[in-house]
Structure formats: C-alpha cells, structure tokens
Amino acid sequence: MILLRRLLGDVLRRQRQRQGRTLREVSSSARVSLGYLSEVERGQKEASSELLSAICDALDVRMSELMREVSDELALAELAQSAAATGSVPTSVRPMLGSVSVTGVPPERVTIKAPAEAVDVVAA
C-alpha cells in the first residue's frame, strides 16, 4: 500500500536537505516542534494543510511545487505497484516513463522494481 504521508515526508526531507538546513532550523522557522516535524518527515504523522503551509514558507517552497513532486512520486509508486503485480510495465503507461531521468537509456528499456516501501527505477 502506498502511504501518501510517507511520500510527502520524503519530499519535505529532500527539500530541506537540498538547502543544507537542519530540522531544528526549519522547525524554528515554521514554528512547529522539532519532534513533530521529524515525525512528519518520517511519514509517521499526517500534516495538516496549515502545518504544510508553515513548513513550505519556512523552506521558501511553493506548496504547489511540493505537491507536484509528491504527485510525481505517487505516479511512479503506482507504476511500480502495477509492474510488481503484472511482472512488467504496461504499454499503456510507458509514455509516463518519459519523465523518468535515466541518463542514456531510452524509456522503453527502463524497468521499474518495487520493493515493499520504495520505488527504484533501473535500466534494463
């Protein structure tokens, strides 16, 4: 099962780490406890829209950008789940692989493997 809160937490953590910021810095700026922000990043807590707005402001990231990245990850997770169930990527969803960045490998040669909690995209 794909957990939206886990995908959201992963994206928030990457955004923070890209900026080289600590949990303490972001939690202070967003006015949320460090422990709670940590639980949100680990996908253990559901963040309210108000909390997400405060975190996005603290990270200077538009919520729409955050949600777009979460949406892209969700789409890949769904593809991986489908591929795991059927053993291959359905032809009808192969055009979606055009957004996957695998240097030097055409989309038709990309295989998606889905471990229980992650999505890995590898060249075939």
TrEMBL record:
It comes from the Bacteria. InterPro entries: Cro/C1-type_HTH, Lambda_DNA-bd_dom_sf, TransReg_Diox_bact_type. The keyword Transmembrane helix does not apply. Coiled coil: none annotated. Residues 12-66 form the HTH cro/C1-type domain. Keywords: DNA-binding. SMART domains: HTH_XRE. PANTHER family: HTH-TYPE TRANSCRIPTIONAL REGULATOR (PTHR46797), METHYLPHOSPHONATE SYNTHASE (PTHR46797:SF1). This is Helix-turn-helix transcriptional regulator.
